[in-house]
Design brief:
The complex is a heterodimer of chains A (398) and B (610). Chain A is an alpha+beta fold. Chain A contains 12 helices and 20 strands. Chain A has 3 domains: 76 residues, Dna Ligase, domain 1, CATH 3.30.1490; 112 residues, ATP-grasp fold, B domain (D-amino Acid Aminotransferase, Chain A, domain 1, 2-Layer Sandwich); 163 residues, Succinyl-CoA synthetase domains (Rossmann fold), CATH 3.40.50. In chain A, helix 2 packs antiparallel against helix 4 and helix 7 runs antiparallel to helix 9. Chain A starts with a strand and ends with a helix. Chain B is elongated. Classes of the chains: A alpha+beta (398), B alpha/beta (610). The interface between A and B is large, with 60 and 63 residues.
Amino acid sequence: MAKILEGPAMKLFNKWGIPVPNYVVIMDPERLAQLGEANKWLRESKLVVKAHEAIGGRFKLGLVKIGLNLEEAIAASREMIGAKIGTSEVRQVIVAEMLDHDAEYYVSMIGNKDGAELLISKHGGVDIEDNWDSVKRIQIPLDENPTIEQLTQIATDAGFEGEIAERIAKICSRLILCFDNEDAQSIEINPLVIRKSDMRFAALDAVMNIDWDARFRHADWDFKPVSEIGRPFTEAEQQIMDIDSRIKGSVKLVEVPGGEVALLTAGGGASVFYADAVVARGGTIANYAEYSGDPADWAVEALTETICRLPNIKHIIVGGAIANFTDVKATFSGIINGFRESKSKGYLEGVKIWVRRGGPNEAQGLAAIRKLQEEGFDIHVYDRSMPMTDIVDMAMKS
Amino acid sequence: MSILANKDTRAVIIGGVAGVNAAKRMAQFDYLINRPLTVQAFVYPPEAGQQKEIFRGGELKNVTVYNSLAPALNEHPEINTALIYLGASRATQAAIEALESPNIQLVSMITEGVPEKDAKRLKKLAQKHGKMLNGPSSIGVMSAGECRLGVIGGEYRNLKLCNLYRPGSFGVLTKSGGLSNEAMWLCAQNGDGITSAVAIGGDAYPGTDFVTYLEMFENDSDTKAVVLVGEVGGNLEEEAAEWLAAEPRRIKLIAAIGGTCQEVLPQGMKFGHAGAKEGKKGAGSARSKMNALREAGAYVPDTFGGLSKAIKQVYEELLASGAIKPESEIDEALLPELPPSVQEVMKQGEVIVEPLIRTTISDDRGEEPRYAGYAASELCSKGYGIEDVVGLLWGKKLPTREESEIIKRIIMISADHGPAVSGAYGSILAACAGIDMPQAVSAGMTMIGPRFGGAVTNAGKYFKMGVKDYPNDIPGFLAWMKKNVGPVPGIGHRVKSLRNPDQRVKYLVSYVQNETSLHTPILNYALEVEKITTAKKDNLILNVDGTMGCILMDLGFPEHSLNGFFVLARTIGMIGHWIDQNNQNARLIRLYDYLINYAVKPERPVPDKK
């Protein structure tokens, strides 16, 4: 899943004929003043200014301001841009037209194993949670688009009438096109608003997830997905992502501030069981990390050094299942170098290291890392005969 | 017995180097259980027509790479399985072709990052054709004692440790590849090993779900229990629970589910496989999956660590009920070892290999090349020069300072002799014809011989002989030479003479004699010879080849190395001429008619062929 921000989502909506309000994304408040000179809607409409960042709960944080005129919008942008929220900083705001409207509807589409499901409700906006029963659904099988009649029927079932039902059906058919052609995983438009005086519709807010794996066939995806972890990525996470994008195999890192047990684990499946084991024993994880697919030793070394720098950690779990093709000797040489380098820089003071691993060249890899004992590391090394997550139990008991 | 892959499985691998590596691992398994090679063909257009070398034990097999699937299947009608080892942008098309080929019943994809829409389409296509699609993101399928598809099972030693050479009683189903291997190990440790293990891949929409495979295991009478390793996200584990609860099942189900940690992590924080994403309101959470499976009657330990105990418990129950007979242990010593490589055996000191070549001058096996034992960088840092390297590599000794000064001068003096001599002219001619440097310089090199630059060795050789055999009898030496060799090599010049001496010779002789302490018996002898020959004819002087040859012999260089000094020195000049011609943008040249005497027959008709 890769969530994208409102700006790129609006752009894709526009591409497929889904009505959106006028909007601009800016990084510099002065630019808004210039845009105001060029765009009538900025001067004449009420505006909404929102921080264009992957920050949850923006309304409560004061990062959404509504009902503004241009000058107020410039002032609000000035206030928001550069604001620091926790570890992240607001760099962009989206300024959109606040459409006067008569009603708020709900339209969404979510992928499932047989295609996708389309959901429609007359009760959009903040009311949707309380009116979930009003949602009408239609399964859209893979590569089979419903007819406009079918869509009109579902709109009618959802309580829409006459021209509005027809217009909703039309918007849905475009939503289906957008979903299908942009490799979307989910699109939620809430609210879809209507101004009945001129029958103008607009998607006022959009949450869109796209399949980032499909980017090779989307030359016009000029954006990056936002962090999936409920906050912007840290610098260390971005560095590891950067390495990940350059290598065969993969290295991954998510920081969990405040945890005491650092994970330096191998494999997408096993790594999660290690995190589970820490939590099950009442511990707290300082991060999630994973390397797999026989990555280069230097990439594992970089991951190791990053993990050694996590603050206040007491244990590092160098865990993994019995690898199929990841070379234990080679990847461990990266880990060993990372540990040495970190120790020479003053990290790893009082940190216990717990190792369990199997796989190609396991004997040499484990023997090499065991030698760190002679260099003053507090390291405990086990082979395949130790059950996979038992090193966590031992760490938590020590 | 087994599911998906068995003794009759024959595979084509669609993909490049990763596919070949997988085929090598698969051949190791074929060797372990003594079955024919599983991989019969590769499909990879960039390498079409090549043969890939695959060792089945010590036996070398060649497997053909085809340009496309159709000809591979035509030539190998026994192929019933396709393994996809291509990148995400090409894997889907390859899988479609495989699924649409009548003979292929199973397609397994290792490719990661296949777009979800493609995965859904492939699944639909597989269902339409009644085929099995495993993956994407699957490490493969292992059927103990029967067949290995992909690198599942890891290195050879692990295949034995996990008892994969013979079937057991446990099926294994996982999303993760690493955990499929771990689960096979746990089944061997705590039970009697596996029948088949299938990694379905950790994507959101795998081609085949757990239930389909559970149904297959249920129908495989040798499988008594299945170890399922699932994780947060999706509903495949819930479906498995429903399947288990729906009616009495023959097989027992043991399951471990990953992702309980997400209960305590900050909201929205997700990690793991692509499919490991919890839905709204806790749907697909690890806890709800564990509960569903427990309620359906599966053995579900709280953590992965509890899996060993659960497997052991089920195994003992199956033994007690008589469903499984205790497995008689196979003596592991009876299982074949992989034949080691020559390097490995040599390390053990258990084999003698006659070397193909011998070297006595340099060795690059360490951190840097060593010339006759001396590290190149150390020679540099201690102030030695190229002339010392020549001394080491050609004569295997480090010259003294005086000696290396002489060598340096010999090279400097003979580096070039203008464009007109045959060597330089050869290089220039080639350069003008647009020939690249190495070939153009070689064209000049081919000119070095008895009439040009190639007399150094023979001059040194015969003057040395003279010193030895005719020490005080130069006329005797000359007579012998006339009788046995002809003109004395190193004596005589086309343009230079006693009155018009070669300044290079004059300088070299005077430098060696006056500014060094080198003992020069051979040079002295040649100068005596010159006195006699110039008395006969003015231009029978000691030429530069002869001078060099004598001095180099006096320096102690091996006789057959001497021409090397001219070759080395003149290479500098020839490279210079090539660079110069290229800088000048020189055009192709040909001889003018007036420079050729056409001493040919007059024009005449060609007679009819008889």
